[in-house]
From TrEMBL:
GO molecular function: polysaccharide transmembrane transporter activity; porin activity
Compartments where found: Cell outer membrane
Keywords: Cell outer membrane, Ion transport, Lipoprotein, Membrane, Palmitate, Polysaccharide transport, Porin, Signal, Sugar transport, Transmembrane, Transmembrane beta strand, Transmembrane helix, Transport
Topology term for the membrane: Multi-pass membrane protein
Lineage of source species: Bacteria, Pseudomonadati, Bacteroidota, Bacteroidia, Bacteroidales
Signal sequence range: 1-18
All copies of domain SLBB, residue ranges: 147-226
Name of the protein: Polysaccharide biosynthesis/export family protein
Highest taxon in the source lineage: Bacteria
Amino acid sequence: MKKIKIALIAAICLLAGACDSSKKIVYLQNLDPSTQEATRADRGITIQPKDILSIVVTCKDPELAAMFNLPVVSYQTNSEIIERGRGTRQVLGYAVDENGEINFPVLGKLKVAGLSRWELQEKIKKELTSRNLLKDMIVTVEFKNFKISILGEVTAPGSYNIEGDKVTILEALSMAKDLTIYGQRDQVYVIREENGNRTIYKMDLRSTDLFDSPAYFLKQNDIIYVQPNKVKAGQSTVNENNLKSVGLWISIASLLASVGTLVVSIIRD
């Protein structure tokens, strides 16, 4: 009986070690599927200096609306117009200057910084309506340079262009094909520069508290950095990395084999 107890204790120790490892990599560990919580309202990103905006005005009379739209050209040097696209087709956009303004056809300078794209759409519609320039128009505003960068222990680091005006940190990490096994889930940082200030947010992907973080919804030019664990941090070269990885698994296999042999021998004796 005593030998069986020793064997059970050894097995429990192994299981405890495995459970401890899983706690380091499992996301949202305190998530309760049976509860419902109101999601935090977020109106999406707001317009900032250096943003590039696509603004299209349409109405029943295309010729009348054309005067409020930028032309599609192969090349133009106007500093207010940024060319993007491939081949002969160029999609033009308005560059927001350092004062947070754009130069819109007919309407002139418009203050746009701090507005969401929906708010800018309504602002342009009101301006066109109040000046009796257009009726029953549709205004569409889109961001042309909403991008984020993801560095550190992810499978596919790099810069990613975002469609739309909302993206969460979990969605961004999925674009980078998730963290590697070496990435510390509780050491994820979002670096944000806004209004001349740099703010760094620390995120713990293991906790649902990340839903309440100001950095849960990402903004233009945010940088996500995933810190490596001690094992990866100690690996300085590719060759050393491979050797240590192989050595680690060999050590684990040897340890498990030794414990298994010990347990079997104790039971037999």
